Amino acid sequence: MRYITIALSKGRLTELSIDLLEGAGIDCTELKGNSRKLILSDEKNKIRFFLAKPADVPVYVEYGAADIGIVGKDTLLEEGRDLYEVLDLGFAKCRMCVAGPKELEGKMDSISITRVATKYPEVARMYFRHKRRESVEIIKLSGSVELAPLVGLSEVIVDLVETGRTLKENGLVVLDTICDVSARMVVNRVSMKMENQRITKLIEDIRKQL
Amino acid sequence: MKRWNIYTPEGVQDILFESCRQKRLLEDKIRRTFRLNGYREIETPTIEFYDVFSENGLIKQESMYKFCDSKGRLLALRPDLTVPVARIAATKLKDEVFPIKCCYIGNTFSFDELGGGRQNEFTQAGCELLGINSPEADAEIIAMAIEALKATGIEDFKIDIGQVGFFKGLMEESGLNENEIEEVREFIDQKNLVGVEQVMDRHKVKSSLKKIILDLPRLFGSKDILQRINYDDIGKGAAEALLNIKAVLEILEDRNLAEYVSIDLGMVQSMNYYTGIVFRGYTHGVGFPVLSGGRYDRLVAMFGRDLEATGFSLGINMVLMALERQKKLVPEKREGVLITYDIGARRLASDYCRQLIAQDIPAELDILNKGIEESREYAISRGFSRIVHVDSDGTKKEIIL
Predict the structure, then answer these.
(1) Which residues of B touch A61 (CB under 8 A)?
(2) How far is CA B224 from the centre of its chain?
C-alpha cells in the first residue's frame, strides 16, 4: 500500500486538524509529540503527515507532494491553486472584508477607491476587478494592515475579520464582506482518482464528526 | 546593464545526454504505437498567426507568446497542437477519406503556471480522429490513449471519462442564468459540495434535479455510479450524454480495456472547445494529468469546414517524470567499443571501427591517444563495454570493462 500524505497548516489550525484526524481513527501520537522530525507517520494506516506554512499547503497539494491538505479558505483564495476542495471543516471561522474609515460607510458605490492595502493581494485584485469592476493599486503588506488607512497609505484595506475588535478600536468599519472563511480540506486532483477509495473513506470519516 | 546571456528564460530547459536519450526513447515508442494503430504523423509550424488561437476566446491571450511578422501581423508560438490540426483539416485535408487519423509529437509554448512537471515549453504527443461522431470513434480514441500510455511503460494508470453534455443538459433543465451556471461549474470542478449547495439554495429547482446537481461532485468512480441516476429526472440533453458514456464504455469493455477506465460526471473543466466525451489520464508520482482529450465537434468549423473530431494529447515531460518517480526509467546498458591503436595501425583501427558501426555496434576511435589509463577513464564514463587495442601488425587485444 502506498502512503497517503497529509499537509497540515502550522499555527492556529494545527490542533483542531489533529483532533479531526484522530476522530477518523488515525494515530497522531507522533504528530503531538515534541519530535523534530519533519515527516511523521501512522504506519498502520500508511499515512504520513507534515506541517507547513499555511500558504505552502495548497502548493504541496497541487503538485501532488501531499495528497491531502488542511488549510484556511483565505489561503486557498489567495493562492488560487487547482485543487479539489472537498470539505468545509467549519472551524477557524471569520470573514474576508473590505474595511476603511467610518466616513466611507455606505458610500462604497459613490467613491472611487484608488489604493488598497492588504496581506491578500490576489483576493483584493479579484474582488475589485470582478465584483466592483475597478482598477485599483494594490499595496501588499505583511501585517497590521489596519495601520494603512490611518497613516494615509491607502483608502481601504482587505483583511480577515474575526470579531472586528481591532477595526473598531482604530475607528475602522467593515465596508463590504467579500466571503466567509473557514478551514477546508483539499485533495490533489490526481490522488483523488488514483486513491479514490482510501481518500473518500477518510473524507467520510471526517465529515461524520462535523 | 544586466547580462542574461548565461541564463535560459523561465520555464524552458536544456535537456542533456541521459534525459535527452530517455525522452527520444519515449517519443520513439509512442510514435511507433501511433503509427501501428493507423495514425499518420504530421508536422505543423511552431509559429502561427495569433488569430488561429484567439478566435472566440479559444485560448486566453495572456497564456500565449506573441510577436509580429515583417508586415506587423500578430504571431503566436503554438500553445496547443489540436487547433493547428483543426486548421489543417478544414483547409487542406478535403480529399481525405474518413476517418482521418493523424498524430504529432511537437513542442508547445504557454505562459501558464510552472512547477510539478509543468514548463512553458513542453512536448506533446497526440492523436486526432476526424470525420466521425459516434461512440465507436470516441472509444477508438480512448483506446489509442490507453495504448499510448501502455507503450510508455507506465503500468498503473487510469483514464477518467466525462461528458460535457451531462452538465450542460442539467443546467438547461435548471433554468439558471449564465453567471450562475459558471459559478456552479467552478464549484463542481473543485468538488466543493458546500459551494454547489449555496448556489442551488438560492434557486427554485425541481427537487429531483437539484439532488443530482448537488450530488455531481460525488459522481465519480466506477461505472456503477451511472446506475445512481434516474433518467426521468435529468432532461433530454443530460440523458443523451449518459447514454453516450454507456455506449462508449460498452465498446471499451469489448476491446478489453475496461480495467483502465473510470468515470467522472463532474468533469467540467473549462476547455471551451470540447463538445462531448472528455477524458484525462492519471498515474502515480505526478500531481497533474499526464494526458487529456475529448470530442471537439465545432472547432474545425471555426476554420470553415463542418467536421466532427476527437483527439487527445499526452504530456511527454509529465510521463517522463512519472516514469522517473516510479523507477521505470531503464538506464543505458554498457555497450560499444573504444578502439585504441598504435600510430602505425590507424588505418586498420579505422576500418575496424567502421565495421562495428555497420553492425550497429557503437564504436569510437580513441583520438585522445594518451595511453591506456586515460582511455579507460573515458571509456567508462561514456558507458563502453570494452576497449580494443589494435597493434601495428593488426592483432587486437581486448579489455572488458
Answers:
(1) 287
(2) 28
In this predicted model, what pLDDT tens digit does every residue of B20-65 receive, in sequence order? 999 999 999 999 999 999 999 999 999 999 999 998 888 989 999 9
CB contact under 8 A, B288 and A64: yes
Of the candidates B158, B194, B285, the beta carbon closest to that of A88 is on: B194
The dihedrals phi and psi of A18, each to the nearest 5 degrees, come to -60, -40
Report residue B178 as a C-alpha cell.
Answer: 449564465
Architecture of domain B4-156+284-325: 2-Layer Sandwich (3.30)
| CB contact at 8 A, B191 and B267 | no
Inter-chain residue contact B116 with A86, CB threshold 8 Å: no
Decide if B287 and A188 are in contact by the 8 Å CB cutoff: yes
Pick the CATH number of B337-400 from 3.40.50.800, 3.40.1790.10, 3.60.130.10, 3.40.50.1220: 3.40.50.800
- Can you read off the three cell numbers belonging to residue A132? 466592483
Average pLDDT for runs of 10 along chain A of length 210: 93 90 89 80 92 95 95 93 91 93 83 89 90 88 94 94 91 92 95 93 92
The distance in angstroms from the start CA to the end CA of chain A is 28
Residue A38 CA to residue A74 CA, distance in Å, equals 25
In this complex, which of B284, B287, B289 lies closest to A62 when CB atoms are compared?
B287
**What is the DSSP pairing of strand A4-9 with strand A68-72?**
parallel
Please give the ipTM for the structure prediction. Answer: 0.83
Ranges of each domain in chain B:
4-156+284-325, 337-400
Residue B261 amino acid letter:
V
- For residue B367 the three cell numbers come to 583520438
String of b and e for B325-364 (b: at least 16 CB within 10 Å)? ebeebeeeeeebbbbbbeeebeebbeebbeebeeeeeebb
Q: Does A190 touch chain B (CB under 8 A)?
A: yes
In this prediction the pTM is 0.90
Placement of cell 497526440 in the chain? B126
B193 with A84: CB under 8 angstroms?
no
DSSP string, B304-364: T----EEEEEEEHHHHHHHHHHTT-PPPPPP--EEEEE-GGGHHHHHHHHHHHHHTT--EE
* Whole-angstrom distance, CA of residue B200 vs CA of residue B180: 9
The CA distance from A93 to the nearest CA of chain B, in Å, is 15
pLDDT digits (tens, 9 = 90+) for A153-208: 999 999 999 998 999 999 999 999 999 999 999 999 999 999 999 999 999 999 99
Residues B262, A192: C-beta atoms closer than 8 Å: no
Residues with Cβ within 8 Å of B368's Cβ and at least 6 positions away in sequence, in order, are: B374, B375, B378
Task: Give B193's contacts in chain A (Cβ within 8 Å).
Answer: 86-87
CA distance A34 to chain B (A): 31
